[in-house]
Amino acid sequence: VQLVESGGGLVQPGGSLRLSCAASGFRLRDYGMTWARQAPGKELEWVGSIDWMSVRADYLSSVKGRFTITKDDAENMLYLQMNNVRPEDAAVYYCIRGWGTGSELRGEGTQVTVLA
Question: Using CA atoms, how far apart are residues 25 and 98, in angstroms rounded to an integer?
Answer without folding.
Answer: 15
